[in-house]
Each structure stands twice: as C-alpha cells, then as structure tokens.
Specification:
The structure holds 2 protein chains of 2 kinds.
Chain A: H1 2-6, H2 8-37, E1 42-47, E2 49-51, E3 54-56, H3 67-76, E4 80-95, E5 98-107, H4 111-114, E6 119-122, H5 127-131, E7 136-139, H6 141-147, E8 157-160, E9 163-171, E10 186-190, H7 191-198, E11 206-211, H8 217-231, E12 239-243, H9 244-287, H10 289-297, H11 302-339, H12 347-373, H13 377-382
Helix pairs in contact in A: 2-9, 2-11, 2-12, 3-8, 9-11, 9-12, 11-12
Chain B: E1 5-16, E2 19-31, E3 36-40, H1 47-54, E4 62-67, E5 70-71, H2 77-86, E6 88-91, H3 103-112, H4 120-133, H5 149-161, E7 167-171, H6 179-194, E8 198-202, H7 206-209, E9 214-219, E10 222-228, H8 235-254
Parallel strand pairs in B: 3-8, 3-9, 6-7, 7-8
Antiparallel strand pairs in B: 1-2, 1-4, 4-5, 9-10
Helix pairs in contact in B: 3-4, 3-5, 4-5, 5-6, 6-8
The chains are: A alpha+beta, B alpha/beta.
The structure holds adenosine-5'-diphosphate and magnesium ion (MG).
C-alpha cells in the first residue's frame, strides 16, 4: 500500500506521458490525414500579398485573379496535372421543397483531381459546361442528405439565386477539414457559372494547381509566380503562391509544440515521482539497517547490497510505470470518449514509458542503495 | 601447526571527537584448532570489541591479527567480507535472523554471498545438512517468529556453520535465553566442538563459561586471566539434572 502511494508520482508521470503522447499522436495523425485529404502536391494561388513581416492588405483585398490567369497556368507551366479556378460564395439553396444554407463553389473540372475527390454517383461537369456557363452542379453528401433525404438527387434540379441548376452528380464523403468545417456541405458549379450567375464577381477566390510530383513543386511554384508576374507587367504583385507542404509544416509545428509542452510537464512529474522513489528507498534503507548489517556480517559485498536496493527501486518504479500505463490508457480513452478527439496509443510509447520508469528507479534509487552499501556492519547491527 | 587465531598486541581505541575510549589494550593470544574458549568479564570490559576484531567486523587500531596464518590487518572492506563469509561463523546475542525469511533461506544466505557461486540445489542440500546438525531439519520452512528463542539461536548457529568456517564466534549467544534453553544451546556447541570445530564465545555467566574448555577473563581491555577449565559441565548431564528436577516438582505437585 505504501509502495503504491510512493509510486504515485511515477504512476501519474507515466500516465501523463502516455495520455499526452497518445492524444498528441492522435492529433498529429488526424492533421496528417486531413492534409493528405486536401489533395496531393497542391499549390494554391491566393489574391493579395503577404510579406514575411505579416499580412499586407490581407488576402483578397485586391481581388485580381482571373480565369484567364488559371488558363494560362494550365497552358504554360510544365508539370501541372490539373488546375481549378475557384470562386466561393455562401448561398441559400432550394430543392425538393426544402432549403439549405451552403457553400457554393465555382470550380474547373480538374478540381476533383486536385482535391483527390471522387464522384459517388452521376458525373462531374466538363470543360464544355464551363465554356457555356452551364447551369449544372455536383453536390456534397451533406447537401444531398439535407435536400434529398429519400431520393436520388442525380437528375434533379436545385435552385441557386432562383436559377435552376441541374444536378449531374453526388460527391463521395470527405469529412471535416482541419479547420473544422464540413467539406461535404457544398454545391460545386462551373467557375464561369459561379462568377456570372451566383457570386456575380469578376475575380477568383483562388487558383488550385496540382503538380505532377512533389519534387516539381518548388519549380512550379516559381514558374507560376513568374508567369503571373509577367501577365501583370510592371505592376506590384497582387497574389501569393503557397504550397501544401507549408501548410502541413505549420500544422505539425503546432502539434509538436503541444506535445513538447505536455511532454515536459509529464517529465517534471516523473522527476517528482523519482524523488518519491528516492524518499521511500531512503526510509527503507533506514528501516532495514539491521538486515543490511546481517547481510554485511555474513559476507555480502558493497555491490551485493547496492544491487539489492537498486533492483527494489527499479521494481517499485516499474510497477508504478505499469500502473501509470494503465492509468494513461484509461485517461486517454476517457478523453477520446468525452471530446471525440482522436487518440493513438502506440506500443512504442508504452514500452518506452515502462523502460523509462525503470531508468528513473535506477537513477533515483542509486543514492539510497549506495548509502546502504556503505554502512558499517557493526553500526548497522547495533541499530535499533 | 600454526594457531587458528593469533593476536599480537591488539589495541582498539574509539575516538568520539575529544573523548578517547581504549576498549582493548594490548591483547596477545593464540587459539588452536579444536579449542573451546569463553571470554568473560564485566560489562564494558571490551569483550564485544575483541570479538568484533576476531570476527573481522572491525579492525584493530594497532597490532596484528593472523587468521589461519594469514595477516588480516591490511585487508580492505570486501576482502574482510570474504573472510567473514568463508573462514568465520558469527553467532549474535540477538539471533539476527532475517524476518519474513524461512529458517532454510536464512541458513542459505551465506552461500548466496560466497565468492564462488553455489548452485541452488547444493545450497539447499548444505543448508538442510546444517539444520540437521542443530536438530532443526523439520523446522526448515518455519519463519523466525514461529520459532522459540532457543530454536532461533540454533538456526543462527546453522547459518554460521554452513560455509564450514575455521572458527565459530559467538557474542553472548545465551544472553537472551532462559537457563534451560541456554544449556541446550551449550549442548549444541559442545557437540560441534567434539567434532573438532574451534569455538570462541563471550559470556558473563560463570556457569555457562563452565561448559567451555578454556576461560579468558578480560578487564579494562586486557586479558587478566587465562585458564583451562577443570571438571567442566557436560550439557547432557546438566539436562538430565534439569529433567529430574522437573519430574520431582511434578510428583510433589500431584501428590
Ligand atoms: N562504537 C563505539 N564507540 C565508542 N565507544 C565504544 C564503541 N563500542 C564500544 N565502546 C566502548 O568500549 C568499551 C568496551 O565495550 P564493549 O566491547 O562493548 O564491552 P563489553 O562487550 O565487554 O560489554 C565500552 O566502554 C564501550 O562504551
Ligand atoms: Mg558486549
């Protein structure tokens, strides 16, 4: 019982390590998943400029990206697989006697390739639809569910700004983005239709570019910058070219600092636990002075006594480690159940924690064990 | 043949800060194989200090101590531990058995610390043999608190014997025992001595010293008398006397 109380520091420390690592790993895994979810090798051109010192003017403050810019990129930059000229707008849509507030996005047919997205049923619109400003749409799963609870939406008509759009297809489910928005809550129409009929804007929200290979991204980013600059003549640049890796790096950096912070808290509690182990071992050495005297008197060497107490300290803290693992796994399951945060418990972190707690036992058990080994046999035997 | 123990002008001075206590002051002594020596003297006369030196638990301040012909004065801590383990067997007044450890395991303990590794089966065999010598082989699985004082002291004797030491040392082995049990324990010592084991023990009881073959009287850290016991007590005879007395007491009681 007293051993358990003593090992409490270790239990909490290891538990905290396991819980934080599990939650941290879970979050990292999720972020990685969501970044892959964005599509592969994607470069994005935003209107407006940013400088290293911060935003200047802000995104979209001078919205001058045009559909021609997107076409020029697709035509002239080598190594580009797909380009989508994007316009985003928020609209109330009506269909089937129901209405729903959703994001209406104008895109090029290449959008699905860029986002690594697939059609679930029906078909995507084509370049011809873009050229003819066709009133056609594909819808996300959420929109399909809300507006057509018990009907196949393909072939139906959806009204956007009171204009009828024919639904050509329904997209597969894509889940939540890492900004927390429902990516399936969307209606996608040809870029031209969105610009002229829905958003009634002349300029794009962004241009999405998919590169052939990760190695080509840096060059394509440069080529796109050069091309857009050239198209603007001598004017000051009014766009920003970003690649997906930069986004991924920002996201993982955040989760890394989180993990490091929580990890250091856990580390501190392990040290506190180690001091607890040291304390109980010192008490134990004092209480068992006579036993140590007996062992020394019948021929135990220093190292025999030292080893005995080191092993005891190690067993004690490993016991704490094992209980801590159980506690940590339990805690992370509760966190997962309560908050819906993803949790990833890895065997490496479990074995690591147990080994580390054994190590803590050895480090903090060393001084008490050394003290025991240095006792004088006569003094130890006389001890009451 | 060299003596088992040779002390040459042994001094032991304790210095606690300013105060110096001269516990042993120039003891020279030879003890030969097969001897059975009692060291007597009043409390504080230096008996235990002398025993601790003999047992290599403590080092003399001055003088030479040859054990089995080997000078022990310059040995370091772990070398003295090996001597205690291999050549010396120590029995204490307070038994000093490990609690929560069976009699058998207590007796096995010295073999655990042997410089040469003893296999577990061998350890068990030798420990049982040692327990048999002291007549406790059926109590091998008992814990110390399940044994009487006399039995605990016999387990301690078995532990002291298990590595076949050159000499058995006992500091007031009967000090915590009643007179009947004391006679029993002295009987064990006498039997061991009859088998050729050298024994040195401390006692302040004259009748206990009478079971030994040689008595040393210590006063103020010096040996003041060294004599052989004539007409020594034999434990079997004394035990019979005790039993007869008990019988007589019973008879008078019941009649
Ligand atoms: N560790 C010690 N430190 C200081 N003085 C001691 C120590 N051990 C024993 N003495 C002193 O040495 C003297 C002899 O003690 P000891 O050998 O125990 O006597 P005995 O066993 O004959 O009663 C006593 O005066 C005692 O107080
Ligand atoms: Mg004494």
């Amino acid at each position: 019982m007293r051993s358990i109380l003593t090992a409490l520091g270790i239990i909490i420390g290891v538990g905290a390590v396991i819980a934080t690592v599990s939650i941290g790993n879970g979050a990292k895994h999720q972020v990685e998943g969501q970044i892959a979810n964005l599509g592969q090798n994607v470069i994005t051109v935003f209107p407006g400029t940013t400088t290293t010192g911060g935003m200047r003017g802000g995104f979209g403050s001078s919205s001058t990206l045009t559909i021609e810019d997107a076409e020029a990129i697709e035509r002239e930059v080598i190594g580009v697989v797909a380009v989508s000229a994007e316009v985003r707008d928020r609209q109330q849509v009506l269909a089937n006697g129901l209405n729903w507030n959703t994001t209406v996005m104008g895109e090029s047919p290449g959008y699905l390739s860029v986002r690594a997205w697939d059609i679930d049923s029906g078909a995507m619109f084509t370049d011809a639809d873009v050229r003819s400003t066709a009133k056609v749409a594909v819808i996300g799963q959420t929109v399909a569910r809300e507006l057509y609870p018990d009907m196949d939406p393909v072939g139906q008509t959806i009204r956007i700004r009171n204009l009828p759009f024919k639904i050509l297809g329904v997209l597969k489910s894509k889940g939540f983005s890492f900004f927390g928005s429902d990516q399936d809550d969307v209606v996608i129409v040809p870029t031209t239709s969105a610009m002229r009929r829905v958003a009634r804007r002349q300029f794009l929200s962004s241009i999405l570019i998919q590169a052939q290979a990760p190695e080509a991204m840096a060059r394509i980013q440069q080529d796109v910058t050069d091309l857009l600059q050239q198209r603007r003549g001598g004017r000051e640049p009014d766009f920003t070219v970003r690649n997906q890796l930069e986004l991924a790096e920002a996201a993982t950096a955040t989760s890394k600092t989180m993990t490091a912070l929580l990890g250091s808290i856990a580390g501190v509690s392990l040290i506190v636990g180690g001091i607890g182990i040291m304390n109980i071992m010192l008490v134990s050495v004092t209480e068992r002075t006579r036993e140590i005297g007996i062992r020394l008197a019948i021929g135990a060497h220093d190292r025999d006594v030292r080893l005995q107490f080191l092993i005891e300290a190690m067993i004690l803290s490993m016991l704490g480690g094992v209980l801590g693992v159980l506690f940590g796994v339990g805690a992370s399951q509760i966190v997962a159940a309560q908050t819906g945060m993803p949790v990833l418990i890895s065997t490496t972190s479990i074995t690591g924690a147990v080994i580390f707690s054994a190590f803590v036992g050895i480090v903090f058990g060393f001084y008490p064990a050394h003290k025991a080994a240095q006792l004088d046999p006569i003094d130890a035997l006389r001890f009451e | 043949m060299h003596p088992v123990v040779r002390l040459e002008e042994i001094y032991k001075t304790y210095s606690n800060g300013e105060v110096q206590v001269h516990a042993v002051r120039g003891v020279s002594l030879d003890i030969h194989k097969g001897e059975f020596v009692a060291i007597m003297g009043s409390s504080g006369s230096g008996k235990s200090t002398l025993m601790n030196v003999l047992g290599c638990l403590d080092r003399p301040t001055r003088g030479r101590y040859l054990l089995d012909g080997v000078d022990t004065s310059h040995l370091e801590r772990n070398e003295r531990a090996d001597l205690r383990n291999q050549k010396l067997g120590f029995v204490f007044q307070g038994f000093n058995l490990l609690a929560r450890t069976t009699a058998l395991e207590n007796v096995e303990l010295p073999m655990l610390y042997s410089p040469k590794r003893v296999p577990a089966s061998e350890m068990r065999k030798r420990a049982l043999a040692a327990l048999k010598i002291v007549g406790l082989e059926e109590r091998a699985d008992h814990l110390p608190n399940q044994l009487s004082g006399g039995q605990q002291q016999r387990v301690a004797i078995a532990r002291a014997l298990v590595n076949q030491p050159q000499i058995l040392l006992a500091d007031e082995p009967t000090g915590n025992l009643d007179s009947k049990t004391s006679v029993e324990v002295m009987g064990v010592f006498q039997r061991l001595n009859d088998q050729g084991i050298t024994i040195v023990m401390v006692t302040h009881e004259l009748d206990i010293a009478h079971y030994c073959k040689r008595n040393l009287i210590v006063r103020d850290g010096k040996v003041v008398r060294d004599e052989f016991v004539t007409n020594r007590s034999i434990s079997e005879v004394e035990m019979q006397k005790v039993r007869d007395a008990e019988m007589a007491a019973k008879l008078t009681h019941s009649s």
